[in-house]
Amino acid sequence: DASNVEVLTDATALAEGKSIFEIRCAVCHRNDGGGGIGPNLTDAYWISGGDIASVFETISNGGRPGKGMVAWKSTLRPSEIQAVSSYIFSLKGTEPPDPKAPEGDLEL
Question: Global pTM?
């Protein structure tokens, strides 16, 4: 859960996270994480916190009320949410073409 989640860095976990991201998340965040309907996940700005626990929590319970991101905890297992969260961390600092403007607070 969010209280003890850690970032995974092994290739197998990141590949699993990427696969889930492409199926479940890319429709709003684009395959490259650059943002569309949802925010850009490649920059240093985060709406609900940019640490692994906050990302895990947002995926599990959904985004801000009225903004459309669903809670995935009834669809994805905690290990899958951890893999997706870790994959999202691997996108930080990448430079997708035409990224969405930063949203939220700067977190270094």
Answer: 0.94
Q: What residue type is assigned to position 39 of the chain?
A: P
5-51 pLDDT per residue, tens? 999 999 999 999 999 999 999 999 999 999 999 999 999 999 999 99
CA-based angle 12:52:71, to the nearest 5? 90
β-strand partners of 45: 106
**Residue 84 Cα distances to 19, 54, 94, 108, angstroms:** 8, 13, 16, 20
Structural contact between residues 34 and 99, judged by C-beta atoms closer than 8 angstroms: yes
State the Cα–Cα distance between residues 17 and 85, nearest whole angstrom: 7
- Rounded distance, CA 81 to CA 7, Å? 11
